[in-house]
Structure formats: structure tokens, C-alpha cells
Design goal:
Helices cover about 35% and strands about 20% of the residues. The chain contains five helices and five strands. The longest helix has 13 residues.
């Protein structure tokens, strides 16, 4: 069997061809209390919230593209991930607190306690987060 694997290059040893997925340094967002911490933290450095629908293919595609293109070090901004289905009340409070209409997927950039930029769907991957640092 080892000879066949060597000849055809298939089998369980196909790890060489796989590309390791790049993942941004996400901080989980799961409580309304965290929003006040994020708001205060935005006075020191930008805070970014990614609202993600775990059941939506478009949201998953945007998340993957965002992860692939993310190239900002952890000490420059804080990147928060919100699972919309698990924490819908937190999503609702984000809309109330920051005055931004809910969309999914959605990315919000918060500086000095206010949303300075936000985008949804394909516009998320077009946002240049570096200009908010």
C-alpha cells in the first residue's frame, strides 16, 4: 500500500498541498458589558467589531477574505468578533449604542467612543483599516 501512495501521491499524506488558513487576532465579543469596555478602549486605540452570521455563506466568504487580507499587528487595534446568532442582544445594543443600522456581515471601526467607519458585505474587504490607526 505504501508503494501505491508513493506512485500516485494520494492518501492521508496530502498535507503538503494544503495552505494553512490565515486568521486575524480575534477577540470574542459575547456580552453587552464588553461594549462599554470597547467604547472606553477606543480612546486609546481603534476598536473594530465584525458582526458575523454563522449560517450565511456570504458572511463566511467575507470573513475568509478579511482573514486572508488582514495584516495589522495586534498592538495597533483591537479586533472583536460577534456571532450574531449566539449574541443577538449584543448586536442590537451595538446598533443602539453607536447609532448604526444593523447589517450582516458588518464591520464597524470605533475611535474616541464613536463609529468612524462601517461597511457591510463586499465593502468590508475594501475598507482600509490602517487609515484609522
Amino acid at each position: 500500500m505504501g508503494i501505491l501512495k508513493g506512485l500516485f501521491g494520494k492518501g492521508n499524506n496530502n498535507e503538503k498541498g494544503k495552505k494553512e488558513a490565515k486568521v486575524a487576532p480575534w477577540l470574542p465579543l459575547g456580552s453587552i458589558e464588553q461594549l462599554e469596555v470597547i467604547k472606553e478602549g477606543s480612546k486609546l486605540r481603534p476598536q473594530v467589531i465584525f458582526k458575523h452570521s454563522t449560517t450565511c455563506g456570504i458572511s463566511r466568504m467575507v470573513m475568509n477574505r478579511f482573514n486572508e487580507g488582514y495584516d495589522i499587528s495586534k498592538d495597533r487595534l483591537d479586533l472583536h468578533y460577534l456571532d450574531l446568532h449566539q449574541y443577538r442582544t449584543v448586536s442590537n445594543e451595538i446598533s443602539n449604542m453607536f447609532g448604526v443600522v444593523h447589517e450582516s456581515p458588518q464591520l464597524l471601526v470605533i475611535k474616541n467612543g464613536t463609529v468612524v467607519a462601517h461597511g457591510s458585505h463586499g465593502a468590508i474587504t475594501q475598507m482600509d483599516l490602517k487609515k484609522y490607526i
